[in-house]
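Q: Given only this backbone (133 positions), what sequence would you predict?
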């Protein structure tokens, strides 16, 4: 007799992917309501000396509270992971970054800051991601 269960790796991976998609959608909605944002590319080698690149966004949100007579706003700086990037060349990272922003509907024109960490291919004067963007 065969019983169905949700412990198989295929089902677990599918559930994780569905949850990741929902979380990313919520981040994008919040980012779009904030309008302007910064992009952060962080590069760190893993134990096998393979570069691990992450794409993150940083933006500010405000929420207003209305106590009896005063209206105050709570400002929150938010930083969120969006995805891992496989290609660690300056051109490759630029293409992946622009494609990711386009796929999620985030306007590149609303970028107000760029942050790069631990990678000469990101900051390189003539061919790095910073120059290309």
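A: Predicted residues:
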């Amino acid at each position: 007799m065969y019983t169905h269960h949700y412990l198989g790796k295929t089902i677990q991976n599918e559930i994780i992917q569905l949850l990741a998609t929902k979380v990313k959608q919520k981040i994008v909605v919040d980012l779009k309501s904030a309008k302007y944002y910064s992009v952060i590319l962080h590069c760190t080698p893993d134990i096998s000396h393979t570069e691990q690149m992450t794409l993150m966004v940083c933006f500010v949100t405000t929420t207003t509270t209305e106590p009896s007579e005063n209206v105050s706003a709570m400002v929150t700086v938010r930083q969120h992971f969006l995805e891992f990037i496989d290609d660690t060349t300056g051109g490759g990272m630029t293409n992946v970054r622009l494609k990711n922003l386009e796929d999620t509907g985030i306007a590149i024109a609303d970028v107000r800051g760029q942050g790069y960490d631990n990678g000469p291919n990101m900051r390189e004067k003539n061919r790095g991601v910073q120059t290309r963007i």
